[in-house]
Structure formats: structure tokens, C-alpha cells
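Give me C-alpha cells for this 213-residue protein.
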Amino acid sequence: MAFRHNMMHRQQLNILSLYMTRLYFFSANIIRAADDIGILILSTAEKNRGISVVCERRLAEQLKLRKTLGIDTSRHLPEVLWTVVRRNVDSEFRILFSNMQDEEYVVFLYDETHSQAIAMRASDAVLLAVVADIPIYIDDNLFARQGMTMRENEQLIHIPMNTLSVGMLEEALQHAIEEERFEQASHLRDEIKRRQQRMDAADVPPTSAPEEL
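Here you go.
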């Protein structure tokens, strides 16, 4: 029975891997024009393509801390909690970026041993992946839509608009106007208007059918 279970488990993982690309944590950045916003970059092994994940500044700083040589974070809360988990659970895990919904990535912590998925925020999932050395995968269709080309030594960070909340867009619009980047401001204004129209349409109650006489 155990052998059969392991064979079925491997087949399931192989099916998942056929349609997914592995990503690696590449960098954590603080947005100059918005002090409370961070951007996490995940890349392919070749570092030629990746995605950006919007997060709070504090989380970006936590990831930068863990990538700084000479700094021991073994007694920090995420590392301590993961040590407790590993002492009591023998499961293998992976992080799955599966879709986009309401301008956020739909992400799961997938327990490969028990075939169970737990929803997570994308930024927290990246931190967990770094702390616990858990592999990150993204659905190939999602990667085709959200992926960006990465170039060596490029300083500009590309952020797809559909990963930003309305509040972030409004803040970016204000900075774009202040810095006279009017073309970018126009794109941001159009995106905010599109989001508002979509929210207004969602709030309209359905028309009831006329009563039969």
C-alpha cells in the first residue's frame, strides 16, 4: 500500500510540474516614491525572466535582512516557528502561484505528502520560502501573462498594474503628477477609472424579472 501511495504521489507531482515553472527569490526593493511599499522580485534560474510581488516595506526589509551576509536570523520568529514545524511534521512543501484575483496573486502552500493546499499572501509565501528553503512554482499561463523580461544590471523595476491596489495606484499617480511624468500619470488615471467602473458595476443589484400576470 505504501509503495502504491508513493507512486501515485509522484505521478501527481509530475503532472503539477508539467505546467509550472520554478522561480527563485531574486531581490527585495523599497519603492523610492512610496516609502511604505516594497517590491519582491522572483526570477527563473537563468535570471532572464521573472515576476514582481508588491508587499509592505517591513516585509521587504525582512527579506533583505535574510540575504545580508553575516547576519544570523536563526532566533527570529519565522525561523523558530519553522524549526518547530520541522520537528513535528514530516511533510514536504512547495509554494504555488496559481492565478490572479482582485489584483493579487492567488498563492498556496502545498503539502505534497498529504495533497493539501493552504492559501497564503504572496509576500508572506516568499518570506516562508526563503526562511524554510521551500521551492516556488508558478503556473505557466500565469507566468506568460505576468512575467517580465529581466536584463543584467537593469535598475528599472517593472510592476504590472494589475498587481497594485487602488490605494497604491492613487499614491503612484500623485507622485507621477508631482514629478511631471504625465504619460505615466495618464496610464495610472485610466487604470484607476477602469477599476472604479468595475467596482460600480459589481455594486449594481441585478434586475428582477417581471412578475407574471
